[in-house]
Specification:
This is YcgL domain-containing protein CA267_016315. It comes from Alteromonas pelagimontana. The protein is of the alpha+beta class. It has one domain: YcgL domain (NE1680-like fold, Roll), CATH 3.10.510.20. 26% of the residues lie in helices and 25% in strands. The protein is built from three helices and six strands, in the order ββαβββαβα. Strands 3-1-2-6 form a four-stranded antiparallel β-sheet. The chain has a two-stranded antiparallel sheet with strand order 4-5. A hairpin with a 7-residue loop joins strand 1 and strand 2. The longest helix has 10 residues.
């Protein structure tokens, strides 16, 4: 099974997987509108991999078969400044005056 992976310029780390190049027919129109212009990253045979971009290939294959697409959201951004403030004994957010 081939899988085409697309990225968007609107949200760093968001990827859209479809079952072939330009196979967007099953992707909801509202999702495509919010996703923006898809940019092809790669076309890859998923049967020969265990993971793809940190995602279990079984999950991707199941979504492609059931929905016709898989949307990978970017990882949650860490707030390093808040973590540092807590580590040195300050509140995570500075007091507003």
């Amino acid at each position: 099974m081939l899988c085409a992976v697309y990225r968007t310029r609107r949200k760093e780390g968001m990827l859209l997987y479809v079952p072939g190049k330009d196979a967007f027919q099953d992707v909801p129109e509202i999702l495509l509108k919010q996703f923006g212009q898809p940019e092809l990253v790669m076309v890859v045979p998923v049967d020969k991999r265990r993971t793809l971009a940190g995602i279990d290939v079984a999950d991707i294959k199941l979504a492609l078969q059931e929905k016709g697409f898989y949307l990978q959201m970017p990882p949650k951004q860490e707030d390093w400044l808040a973590e540092h403030r807590v580590a040195i004994g300050l509140p995570a957010k500075p007091d507003k005056k």
